[in-house]
Design goal:
two-stranded antiparallel sheet, about 300 residues, 11 helices, about 60% helix, 5 strands, mainly alpha
Length: about 300
């Protein structure tokens, strides 16, 4: 038994000497051995050892990649700061979008956040260099297949275009346009009228009193639709207002453009009746005319001559 312990200790010392000549960090804990009642232990050592399947399960390998690449492959401090600003503005804009999902008010409340995000992305994607002649376009946008910065911004840009927010804002995206402000003022008049008469519980009175303001709102919306000055905020608010008017309050009013349609449709409906009626009257007049043939007239003259001589 003692010989076995001595042999194990010798093998352990040989392994320790081998570890000293290695190049990869590894933690090896050598178990305690006893020779003739004497305790012989070695402390845990951190030495380089090549990764080899011959190492036993008692060896714990601690491997890691290099923490840094050469300077020419690293992101510059300027681009790192630009990337940090992009991340902050990206999160700010997304939070704004989520906050105004329903009812939709993303154009009127999130245009500042989008403008800031667009500015920082323009800096990153620009050919112009920043401090120390550094351009971040190739480093942050084209350095890998994923192109994460480009994809993230492109997704939000698609949401902005689908919302057509540009139509409701000034060219600088700094404030709402005059048409949008006027529409909101007209919308608030209709909603205030709805709220006032809804509290009374009389929908018939609501339909009567709010008819003028609601008609003005519809006419304004039609003009803006024709002029292509509608964004998602206006479209959604108009849909909700029409739903209130027709479904919740059961109100309605004939639209002026339907009058000509009804008139033409009525005329086309009665046109066959008028045609057949005129044809019938015309045929009856022909039947009333008597036709006297010449033979009948000559026969009458001959009869008179016979009577004269008889």
């Amino acid at each position: 038994m003692a010989f076995t312990n001595i042999f194990a200790y010798v093998i352990t010392l040989m392994l320790y000497e081998w570890l000293q000549a290695s190049s990869v960090d590894v933690s090896v804990t050598i178990p305690e051995s006893r020779v003739d009642g004497v305790s012989m232990t070695t402390s845990s050592v951190n030495r380089g050892v090549p990764v080899s399947p011959s190492l036993g399960p008692s060896s714990y390998l601690s491997l890691s990649l290099m923490s840094a690449f050469p300077d020419d492959l690293e992101i510059s401090d300027y681009c790192q700061e630009e990337l940090h600003i992009f991340a902050q503005r990206y999160v700010s804009y997304v939070n704004c979008l989520v906050s105004f999902v329903r009812p939709v008010k993303v154009c009127q409340n999130c245009h500042i956040q989008f403008r800031n995000l667009e500015e920082i992305y323009a800096n990153i994607s620009s050919d112009q260099v920043g401090p120390a002649n550094v351009s971040c376009r190739d480093t942050l946008l084209r350095s890998d297949r994923l192109m994460l910065v480009f994809v993230l911004f492109d997704n939000l840009l698609e949401i902005w275009k689908t919302s057509a927010c540009d139509r409701c804002l000034t060219k600088e995206l700094s404030s709402l346009s005059n048409d949008t402000l006027y529409y909101m003022a007209t919308l608030n008049q209709s909603l205030s009228c709805f709220e006032k008469h809804q509290q009374q519980g009389n929908h018939s009175e609501l339909c009567k009193e709010c008819k003028t303001t609601y008609r003005s709102l519809n006419e304004l919306y039609s003009r803006m639709e024709k002029n292509k000055t509608l964004c998602i905020d206006i479209e959604d608010s108009m849909n909700m207002t029409r739903r209130l008017w027709s479904k919740n309050f059961n109100c309605s009013f004939p639209r002026e453009e339907t009058v000509p349609v009804i008139a033409v449709s009525s005329f086309m409906l009665f046109l066959p009746i008028i045609f057949y009626l005129s044809s019938f009257l015309h045929s009856e007049q022909k039947k009333r005319k008597l036709i006297h043939p010449k033979r009948a007239k000559s026969s009458g003259g001959l009869t008179n001559v016979q009577d004269k001589y008889s």
